[in-house]
TrEMBL record:
Residues 223-234 have a biased composition (Polar residues). It comes from Microvirga aerophila. It comes from the Bacteria. Residues 133-143 have a biased composition (Pro residues). Residues 128-148, 209-275, 287-310 are annotated as: Disordered. This is Uncharacterized protein. Residues 209-222 have a biased composition (Basic and acidic residues).
Length: 407
């Protein structure tokens, strides 16, 4: 459907018609078809070609010229009637006079006119012209009144709605592609960051294994203020009590966690030991039970039973915020995975798991296992080599993870 003509385009068309600019040039300037430009020029009153009406006398003269002997060509008839060849041919077709002339005679006359000298041709034409009565003077046809401008048809609202919907669909498609590209880029960045963090953890673990671990020396215990006050209370004669048959309560064993040494540790100046106080009692003091050596307290943790006493190097590393064991590395990996899932969920993009093996891998990673793809198989915790999905399923089922749970 051609677009509607604007006032600027109509003004350009009027100006070009007044300047006798060819219509094809104006059509190219306005980026419109040539026939449509011709039609619009006629509609706004700038006639491209003056219309010549065919009167009855002119039509009768045309019939005589067509039936003349020898026959005349279209060019000769057009010159006789002061019209163009195209107008004569259209009128001959309209009057069904195309096959009236003898074409063979016309061809012979044309051929003989080319052979004969040019002097003999005007005499024949003059005799033929004198035989016919004088042609009445042509009456100029009155100029037709200008046609009013035809308003462009009103565009249907449904068409406008369809165009708007197509435009909106293209915009949404472009935005969706942009969001997907940004999401993929973010996922790649998060994965690269997680890999870099894991690599830093591995390097730190290697450094700690290579570095000799120095045993932390326990600080010398000092008598507390409460102990001194208790001794003075026992030595006072007013508060002497008869000895009881029950043994003295066993003092609670406190586990000392040495602080992480940072930098050179200054040696503390030990105070001189206090003199031992001798206490004389009327009744012999009850014998105290020999203190039993309490073994190091045990506690249950992620890696099984382990001692509460902590490695000084590990304490120092944790004070600096770096992982030194598999448990810390697993916690860091899980935190990275949670960050990636949160990044994806905030952008409304989810990725469906392709197979049951991927589901098992996801559940194993949620349990704290480090699963890395290697060829057609997997490597779990850098020590378990899994060749195919059957071995992966067996490995997961041995740890309480089945395909039903993964689904």
């Amino acid at each position: 459907m051609n677009r509607e003509w604007t006032e600027e385009e109509l003004e350009i068309l009027r100006r070009d018609r007044e300047a006798k600019v060819p219509v094809p040039i104006t059509a190219a300037k306005l980026n419109r078809p040539v026939p449509a430009t011709y039609l619009r020029a006629r509609m706004i009153g700038t006639q491209v070609q003056t219309h010549q009406a065919w009167e009855e006398a002119t039509v009768a003269r045309l019939r005589e010229l067509v039936r003349a002997d020898p026959p005349m060509t279209d060019k000769q008839i057009a010159a006789e009637l002061c019209r163009t060849i195209t107008q004569v041919r259209w009128k001959l077709k309209d009057l069904n006079l195309i096959g009236v002339r003898d074409l063979s005679k016309l061809a012979k006359a044309t051929a003989s006119s080319t052979v004969r000298p040019a002097v003999a041709k005007p005499a024949v034409v003059l005799k033929q012209a004198s035989a016919h009565p004088p042609q009445p003077s042509r009456i100029p046809s009155p100029r037709q009144p200008e046609k009013p401008m035809v308003k462009a048809p009103v565009i249907d609202a449904r068409t406008l709605l369809n165009v708007a919907l197509r435009r909106l669909e293209r915009d949404l498609e472009t935005r969706l592609k942009t969001v997907v590209a940004e999401t993929e880029a973010g996922m790649m960045q998060a994965a690269v960051a997680a890999i870099a963090a894991k690599r830093a953890i591995d390097n730190r673990l290697a450094e700690l294994r290579a570095r000799p671990i120095e045993e932390a020396k326990p600080e010398p215990s000092r008598p507390s203020k409460s102990t001194a006050e208790t001794a003075q209370a026992e030595s006072s004669p007013q508060k002497r009590r008869p000895p009881s048959s029950k043994p003295a309560p066993k003092p609670a064993v406190r586990t000392m966690v040495p602080a992480a040494p940072r930098g050179p540790v200054a040696r503390e100046v030990q105070a001189p030991p206090e003199p031992t106080k001798i206490i004389v009692l009327d009744v012999p003091a009850p014998s105290r039970a020999a203190p039993q050596d309490a073994g190091p307290a045990q506690t249950s943790g992620r890696g099984g039973w382990k001692s509460v006493r902590r490695d000084p190097a590990r304490v120092a590393a944790q004070a600096r915020g770096k992982a030194t064991s598999r448990a810390d590395a697993v916690d860091l990996a899980q935190a990275a995975q949670v960050a990636i899932e949160q990044f994806i969920s905030q952008r409304g993009v989810t990725k469906a798991e392709a197979a049951a093996s991927q589901s098992l891998v996801t559940r194993l990673q949620a349990r704290g296992y480090i699963v890395v793809r290697e060829g057609d198989g997997w490597v779990i915790d850098q020590r378990h080599q899994i060749a195919n999905e059957a071995e992966l399923t067996a490995f997961a089922e041995a740890r309480g993870i089945s395909l039903g749970m993964a689904a």
